[in-house]
Amino acid sequence: MAEMKNSIDTSLRERALRVVPGGMWGHLHANRLPEGYPQFFARAEGCRLWDVDGRSYLDFMCSWGPNLLGHHHPEVEAAAERQARLGDCMNGPAEAMVELAELLVDTIGHADWAQFQKNGTDATTTCVTIARAGTGRRKLLAARGAYHGAVPWCSPSVVGVTSEDRAHILYYEFNDAESLSAAAKEAGDDLAGVLVSAYRHDLSRDQELPTAEFALAARAACDAVGAALILDEVRAGFRLALAGSWERLGVRPDLAAWSKAIANGYPLAAVTGREWLRKAASQVFVTGSFWCGAVPMAAGVATLGVMRRGGVVEHLEAMGTKLRNGIDAAAARHGIRLRQSGPVQMPLILFEDDADFAKGTLFCQTALARGVYFHPRHNMFLSAAHGEAEIDEALAAADAALAAVASARQTAA
Amino acid sequence: MAEMKNSIDTSLRERALRVVPGGMWGHLHANRLPEGYPQFFARAEGCRLWDVDGRSYLDFMCSWGPNLLGHHHPEVEAAAERQARLGDCMNGPAEAMVELAELLVDTIGHADWAQFQKNGTDATTTCVTIARAGTGRRKLLAARGAYHGAVPWCSPSVVGVTSEDRAHILYYEFNDAESLSAAAKEAGDDLAGVLVSAYRHDLSRDQELPTAEFALAARAACDAVGAALILDEVRAGFRLALAGSWERLGVRPDLAAWSKAIANGYPLAAVTGREWLRKAASQVFVTGSFWCGAVPMAAGVATLGVMRRGGVVEHLEAMGTKLRNGIDAAAARHGIRLRQSGPVQMPLILFEDDADFAKGTLFCQTALARGVYFHPRHNMFLSAAHGEAEIDEALAAADAALAAVASARQTAA
């Protein structure tokens, strides 16, 4: 990929390496991506990104979730600018905080109230704290391998983490009602809550929607002892169903954690909850210097306003279906076996016989060279700005990328 | 205070009470302030705020820290708007992230590198995780009563917190070298770090600058076993000394946590560290959906740019001194005994014989009615937008407020 001439990106990486440990940190580190992917970005518009070397990409990561309606969505930007001219970080919230809480309560099936934070991790951590406060118990059930944030109690890494940080966490297998029941039994009458992702979107493995049986078992395990069912909607929230990802299953959580897409890229997170946990939520001490910032609240009000007019989730599904079908058809044409899993609006493409992700890497690198930004191992995201023409453009790149995978297989054989 | 007619504020509080537990949460909850203080704000400019009922305040809380240069500072706003037109939350950082890290490393005495987060709590938690990763040890020393954030390991509340969350934290008394040494001895060769605030700014008690003896003892306790000295600069950072609050003591930390004022109100936090912890910082997994947001980074670059031109800290000191001297003089005139403590640019006014804060409350309410927003128990903050005229205005209100306190004493006597 040396011919791509990432000269400014390379020089920024060199500068960064001097002043940032490892040159970057966390999930946006380009070392988690195939070679050739840019680390630094110059511009974003709709569903397109420009890197610092001026190359443009049709983007399928959507900032790893936050970009729901398209970068610089006019209604969201107008609301944010209007609020910014008035004030953002003040001695207390603006009216937008109340409006956003009202909208969430009115929109989300289980929500009797809402509280706001900045990070998805703030929201999941707050849910756990509220569940413990509301039940007076300690044990938390979480799915093995699920991502719920990047602090010691839930980080995917144990570097710098002590065993006490996870002392009261018991693990079950997603979509395995029996393992959940066994963990609940082990927690016994010390069970404070069951934490579960809206659907299984663990890195590097097929995505799985929850079965009705599993969702009902999670609900029943909580109801049996008065524990809180905590739904982690940080990643999936607002893309699957506006009222909540488990509404279609007829299972409502007691608490839910939201972030990423909630304000179309403005930094915001939220916890929603049911009446019985309102008092506990008012008793825990959770706060942050910027949590009442009015600009993200105004952006959230505008984002939810657009979503509530309807059609966005349907559009994401239609475009996701077109992408999935198109890639399946192209894969068949090229004789490539691959698996697409999870909700179509949050695509994941994994190749058969690809334990080292060599096929996925070649697929993504070839698409990237044609201006389409896919991810080989992490679920991707669609935005409202992805239309028919963009999906056709992506499918053309995917076709070429699958041809490259097929050709590499020929060469290897 | 009923005559103040907070009618819109009251109606917003009623709406909030239905959809937000307790109507509000955290440190910005108006129930932590005397009656009459507004909960909701409509507008901010320089060092002034307008509440939703149209009343304006000369503000001495500065959004509890973030407002360092004044709301809508033209250079900061121009930089933020320029970046916002390009892109904010993208698939990776913008060049501004590197620029800001370079500026921090160039500005802050101990800093060999920087990493970014959103909340002050993110920064302190990241410091602790890096210290544990870098030392392979677990114990952390913290000052009893110090505020380092609002998650279970450090929250001022234990509601929803388990004892394991604080299993490895040992407490010492601020400015008490002996108690620190005793705690370090107890931690023994499991000591990962010593966490200490830039100065003592615990709620409801006199502020204390660290003594050189104490700072040196903290440094020595770390050096003796190779632990990390972690300075919490979240509240004091950029107001006392640009290169770091302990530079004047000749004591450099290994890690420091920054937030609040770093981007003049835009949501951002940072950790800075020394070379020996660079590898550990690259190994821990810490991340957030909005941590690479380019607009707050650009605002941070502009804020640091203004600060590095010099004069702001000196201005804050001059205005803080004028305020402190003026209040002392007014108190003497009215025969009121009060204590002003800590750095002049972060004022705290406590009254003698005021265990129930009745005097402080009356003082603040009277000033508020005259359009000056003080706090009776928490340290306050000055901004670069507070000039001579504003301090004179504040002193006029303070004079009337002290007269009210004197008059109430007469009545009681």
Automatic annotation (TrEMBL), chains A, B:
Q: Which cofactor does it need?
A: pyridoxal 5'-phosphate
An example Gene Ontology molecular-function term: pyridoxal phosphate binding
Is this entry keyworded Calcium?
no
Pfam families xrefs: Aminotran_3
Keywords attached to this Swiss-Prot or TrEMBL record, sorted alphabetically, are: Pyridoxal phosphate
Membrane-spanning segments: none
* Gene3D superfamilies associated with the record: Aspartate Aminotransferase, domain 1, Type I PLP-dependent aspartate aminotransferase-like (Major domain)
Family, as annotated: Belongs to the class-III pyridoxal-phosphate-dependent aminotransferase family.
What is the name listed in the Swiss-Prot or TrEMBL entry for this protein? Glutamate-1-semialdehyde 2,1-aminomutase
From what organism does this protein derive?
A: Bosea psychrotolerans
